[in-house]
Amino acid sequence: MPTVVFDVGNVLIRWDPFRVYREMIPDDEKRTWFLQNVCTAAWNLEQDRGRSWEEGVALLVASHPEWEAQIRAYDERWHEAVPGLIEDSVSVLEELKGRGDKVYAITNFSREKWAECLVRFPFLQSFDGVVVSAHERVIKPDPAIYRILLERYDLAPADCIFVDDSARNIETARQLGMKGVHFVEPIDLRAELSRHGVAF
C-alpha cells in the first residue's frame, strides 16, 4: 500500500496573508505592492527556515519603519490568514489514519506558528511522522528536507505519494523517486490518490 505524505499549508489548512490586510490596506494595488515588496514571500520563508518571528519583524521594521503596524500584524494577526481547514483533505487524512495507514507530512512552517497550530488544529498531531522546516533549518524544495523524512522514518521513495500545492515542491519529490499530486483546487484528492494505488 502506498504511503501518503502531506504538505500542510493550502493542502490541509488554508493560508492567505491577503486576508490580514484587506481592512488595514484597503487599496488593492497598495496591498499587493506591500506583500510583494515589504512582507514578501522570501521574508516569510526565513521564518519557515528557523528565524524567529521576533527577529524577522525587527529586521523588517528597521528597513521599513513607515510600515511598522502592518509588518507587526503579519505576526500578531497571523491566525486571521488561516481561516480554517480544507475539509475534504482532512477527511482523506482521517480516513487513512482510521483504517491504520501510516501518514506523514513535510511542511514549510515557522517554529512558533507550528506550535500554535498543533493546539488550534489537533488533527496535525495525528501524523506518524512530520518534518517541519523550521525545526530542521531547511525548506522545500531543497531535496534535503525530503531525505530527512525518508531516512528518519525508513520510507522508500517509490512507496510515497507526496501531496503539495507547489509545483516546484512536487518536482523535487518526483526527482527523488516519489510520486506527486499537485494540489490545486478544485481537486478530487481521493481520485488522484487512487490513480497512484491508494484504495478508498
Overall pLDDT score:
97
Provide a count of the helices. Answer: 11
- The N- to C-terminal Cα distance equals 11 Å
Order of helices and strands: EHHHHHHEHEHHEHEH
Shape: globular
Main pleated sheet: 5 strands, parallel
Query: For this structure, what is the CATH homologous superfamily of the largest domain?
Result: HAD superfamily/HAD-like
CA radius of gyration: 18 Å
Approximate strand percentage: 5-15%
In the residues, how many domains can be counted? 2
Number of strands: 5
Low-confidence stretches: none
Structure description:
- The chain has 200 residues and is of the alpha/beta class.
- The chain folds into 2 domains: 3-14 and 83-195, 3-Layer(aba) Sandwich (Rossmann fold); 18-81, no CATH class.
- The chain has helices spanning 18-21, 28-37, 41-48, 53-63, 68-76, 87-98, 111-120, 133-136, 143-152, 167-175, 189-195; strands at 3-6, 103-107, 129-132, 160-164, 179-182.
- It has a 5-stranded parallel sheet with strand order 3-2-1-4-5, with helices on both faces.
- α4 (53-63) runs antiparallel to α5.
- The chain is globular and about 55 Å long.
- The relative contact order is 0.18.
- The model has no long low-confidence stretch (mean pLDDT 97).
